[in-house]
Amino acid sequence: MLQRTLFRASRQAAHPVRRIQPAFAPISRAAPAIRWYSDAAPAEAKKEGEAAEAKVDPSAQMKEQLEKKDKEIVDLKDKYLRSVADYRNLQERTKREIQSAKDFALQKFARDLVESVDNLDRALTTVEPSKLTSPDANSDLVQLHDGLKMTDSILISTLKKHGLERFDPSEQNEKFNPNLHEAVFQTPMPDKEDGVCFHTQQKGFLLNGRVLRAAKVGVVKNS
């Protein structure tokens, strides 16, 4: 037994055992890769931005801001002037409407009143002038006529103060006006001009310059 052991030891000494490496070496786990970032690019970009800002002219910025403010002022001024003009137009329109309402508020009352004025005027024309001027004229009739005439004058004067006026086209031989007159009949009259109102059948009335009732007239027509 001892001899075998010595023999093996001598053989190993004479022929050392070569260590055989495997064909495929085990893959070792690689260390994680580390990335390195540089601060050079952001620093350069920042410097470029600062340089661009430094190149901007402060006076140009101020001029741009002033132009913007000037435009805003012009717009606000235009809006203000328009508002003032609209307000003044509204005032004028309201004033005209109020005045028109005042002027023609009595229109219906005036229409009813002219009938009474017509009756009073008709009563004055029923008495012939010769009966009032003759020596044997009735004194009571003369006094009554004078009283009615005075009442008619006072009434017409009072109505005129409130814008109601009576007009008689035949007194002034006025030309026929379709806006003021209503032609009841036409007749030839060689001694008068064609188209003249020679007879008034019913007197007309104006209320503050507006025709309340047209005058009914006879018109000359020679042609």
Automatic annotation (TrEMBL):
Its main location: mitochondrion. It is found in: Mitochondrion matrix. GO terms for molecular function: adenyl-nucleotide exchange factor activity; protein homodimerization activity; protein-folding chaperone binding; unfolded protein binding. GO terms for cellular component: PAM complex, Tim23 associated import motor. It comes from the Eukaryota. The keyword Chaperone applies. Keywords: Chaperone, Mitochondrion. One of its GO terms (biological process) is protein folding. InterPro entries: GrpE, GrpE_CC, GrpE_head. Essential component of the PAM complex, a complex required for the translocation of transit peptide-containing proteins from the inner membrane into the mitochondrial matrix in an ATP-dependent manner. Belongs to the GrpE family. This is GrpE protein homolog. It comes from Didymosphaeria variabile. The gene is mge1.
